[in-house]
């Protein structure tokens, strides 16, 4: 087998070292086993800790994005209304030709 195919075949695989503990090798083989299960109390504590790291937007940013969403909602509604109306008239015209 050419070297290039052999390199692609083994791409992303890590070599095992003699000093690696058995648990680390088992955790690398099964990623779902890597994260230990936690109880509900510890889980809620972790969620609260992550929520403290969130950077919440200020009121000016909230208002700007709210107004932007409303404007886009109105524009998209008008666009789809016009497209729907045009297609309905075109279909009505095509179906009317056959009768």
**Biggest β-sheet strands, sense, barrel:** none
Oligomeric form: single chain
Indicate the structural class. mainly alpha
| Total discrete domains | 1
The share of residues in extended strands comes to: under 5%
Contiguous uncertain segments of 5+ residues: none
Number of strands: 0
Number of helical regions: 4
User: Given the C-alpha coordinates, what overall shape results?
Assistant: elongated
For the residues shown, what is the average pLDDT? Answer: 80
Spell the H/E element sequence. HHHH
What percent of the residues sit in helical stretches (DSSP H or I)? 55-70%
Separation of the first and last Cα atoms? 70 Å
Instruction: Please state the CA-atom Rg, rounded to the nearest Å.
Output: 30 Å
Question: How would you summarize this macromolecular structure in one to three sentences?
Answer:
By secondary structure, this protein is mostly helical. 69% of the residues lie in helices and 0% in strands.
Chain-wise SSE layout:
Layout: H1 3-9, H2 22-29, H3 40-53, H4 59-97
Notable traits:
0% strand, 99 residues
Question: Overview of this structure, please?
Answer:
The chain has 99 residues and is an all-alpha fold. It has one domain (22-97). The protein is 69% helix and 0% strand. The mean pLDDT is 80.
